[in-house]
Amino acid sequence: QRLSEMAVDHQTQVFVDGTFEDLADELAGYIDNVKKVEESDGVRAEIKPLLDGNKKDEALKKLVTASPVLNFAPEKEFTAAYNLLIYLVIQSPNVNIFLPKVCENLSRPITSSPINGTGLALSVLTTLFNLLKSDNEVRYNVFQAILRLVKTSGLYEMLRPQLKKLDTWIEEWDVDEEDQRKLFGQIADVADDAGEEE
What we know:
Layout: E1 7-8, E2 14-15, H1 20-35, H2 43-52, H3 56-66, H4 75-90, H5 95-106, H6 117-131, H7 138-153, H8 156-159, H9 166-173, H10 177-193
Antiparallel strand pairs: 1-2
Helix pairs in contact: 1-2, 1-3, 1-4, 2-3, 4-6, 5-7, 6-7, 7-10
């Protein structure tokens, strides 16, 4: 299965092999498998006519809607499955419509991995953050999802090195003053929980 062999280069992109249609079909089949549904009742059957009709965004919408099931995927396949979803999403001209849902999924418990789930989710969110162009405002939402996870998990050490870049990011995201205050408040809150002196 190609899914488990996918490599990620954080600096540039997720490396995957195949056309959008092939990869969407593979992910749909994987989702159906995790859901344990008959092929005729699954997402794969739903998106086939859309892919055949070159309606990529409509197929993607169905994949993203079904994607919370990936939180039940076996731990060793979790990252590859999410990376494949992210790879498909970032190819869409409407990437910003689909990403909030993906961030929301990753903020929820990873039921297949109660111990390492937060680390897995943070890893996927970090990949997503790095894949987005620096001035994409969705990076701000991804960063907030990372903050929420760090707060609930106490993994402040994972966040600390990134904070040096925060001023640059805020400039790139064009965050208004009120949102900046909120963001700094959230970070102070996370640091406080971790017993850090700011």
